[in-house]
Amino acid sequence: MAVTKTPLYETLNESSAVALAVKLGLFQSKSTLTCQEIGDGNLNYVFHIYDQENDRALIIKQAVPYAKVVGESWPLTIDRARIESSALIRQGEHVPHLVPRVYYSDTALAVTVMEDLSHLKIARKGLLEGENYPNLSRDVGEFLGKTLFYSSDYALEPKVKKQLVKQFTNPELCDITERLVFTDPFFDHDTNEFEEELRPYVEKLWKNDKVKVEAAKLKKSFLTSAETLIHGDLHTGSIFASELETKVIDPEFAFYGPIGFDVGQFIANLLLNALSRDGADRDPLYEHVKQVWNTFQTTFSEAWEKHSLDVYAKIEGYLADTLSHIFEEAIGFAGCELIRRTIGLAHVADLDTIVPFDKRIERKRLALETGAAFIEKRSQLKTIRDVIKCFKLLVKE
Ligand code: SR1
Ligand code: MG
After folding, report:
1. Is the CB–ligand 1 distance for residue 69 below 6 Å?
2. Which atom of ligand 1 lies closest to the CA of 340?
3. Residue 176, SS3 per DSSP
4. By CB neighbour count within 10 A (0-12 exposed, 13-18 middle, 19+ buried), where does 87 fall?
5. How far apart are CA 238 and CA 266, in angstroms?
6. CA 272, 227, 317, 144: dihedral to nearest 10 degrees?
7. Are 265 and 292 in contact (CB under 8 A)?
8. How many angstroms separate the alpha carbon of residue 237 from the centre of ligand 2?
9. Among 361, 362, 365, 385, which is 20 to 30 Å from 317 by CA?
10. Distances (CA, A) of 232 to 32, 134, 174, 175
11. Which of the listed residues 43, 189, 230, 255 should we mutate to test ligand 1's pocket, taking the one with most ligand atoms within 8 A of CB?
């Protein structure tokens, strides 16, 4: 498949990004502006434009028509920019303090102009440097509870919700997740990447039909459960944080999917960070895992009590049953994320930077083992404490 560009699309560079910002009237003149491409993600260009005179900055993010992480041989729709800016705007209606403000978007140019957050640090980086971000999981729990509730059938008229399902249909980005999270790591596929020393453990996973059947069910849920508008890629690299603030960014994978997916991805990435640490340094991550689930559960339940349109909402047992379904799926999705970040195409620095090498292999083995256990035993893990207990038992703590 060839890379397709619309006639109105052109890839920005530092000087055309500045020209665009000035043309949009976002700055007075070019002369005091500096621009730097700072994108370190897998897919897009990110330009940081700074006005030295007024000490003001903004971000221009542009989707390129291929996956940057692989190159032009992997064409990828630029429609993801439309999805991202629309999702940010929608999330901003419910949690304005937890997402960047969008100033402008242009679907033909695949551009989103948004608030500069460079006073914050990408949470994955900060956590790796030993920061613990006391507010992180409470904020992400609130983000999850509100965004996931207010775009669901529990909160919306069915026709409105179906319109949103259409607006947020995102087949190419879903295909990435369907393959890289739910399929390739469970088979001997050429997108997988892992050290030869891990091969015995990886082959054990590939032969484990029990885990594969459960992974298949989770994939089916991702493919078919249009429950709510999910972020779709909520790892710690999609979050900016400081001691005080949290901002969730990059919802280009957003679509109508299962409520538990974002919750599970975030939990898995906390645990991946825990695996990069030793002993008591892991405790803040376990606290975050507990806190994110508890805050999600409380926020979602409060929204349900106040704003559910569902005629069954007040029937005894329905909310509890809904939450236990979300929980079970979230733990399964967390298992898939633990595995794919260890042996799939897109690794995480949390594991890849562990030294010495033997320790890295051991921690990766543990990521595979805990991931498989979460997938297989998710229905037996009834509370978030059970999940942490299971993880600690497997990592022998
Ligand atoms: C080809 S994209 C690889 C990964 O990067 C994104 O952030 C998503 O996590 C995706 O799976
Ligand atoms: Mg991203």
Report:
1. yes
2. 11
3. helix
4. buried
5. 10
6. 40
7. no
8. 7
9. 385
10. 38, 24, 8, 12
11. 43
3-state SS assignment for residue 117? coil
Residues whose CB falls within 8 Å of the CB of residue 278, separated by 6 or more in sequence, listed in order? none
- What confidence tens digit (pLDDT) does each residue in 264-299 have? 999 999 999 999 999 999 999 999 999 999 999 999
193 lines ligand 1 (CB under 6 A): no
Mutate to test the pocket of ligand 1, among 176, 177, 265 (most ligand atoms within 8 A of CB): 176
180 lines ligand 1 (CB under 6 A): yes
Q: Which residue, by CA, sits nearest to atom 6 of ligand 1?
A: 42
| Ligand 1 contacts CB of residue 213 (under 6 A) | no
Q: What angle do CA 82, 86, 88 make, to 5 degrees?
A: 120
Which of left, alpha, beta for 240 (phi over 0: left; psi -120 to 50: alpha)?
A: beta
pLDDT (tens digit, 9 = 90+) per residue, 171-224? Answer: 999 999 999 999 999 999 999 999 999 999 999 999 999 999 999 999 999 999
Q: Which residues pair with 268 in a beta bridge?
A: none
Residue of minimum CA distance from atom 2 in ligand 1:
42
Cα torsion 71, 73, 79, 80: sign: negative
Matching residue, tokens 């029937």 = 315
- Is residue 178 within 8 A of residue 185, CB to CB? The reply is no
Numbers of helices and strands, H then E, in the chain: 14, 12
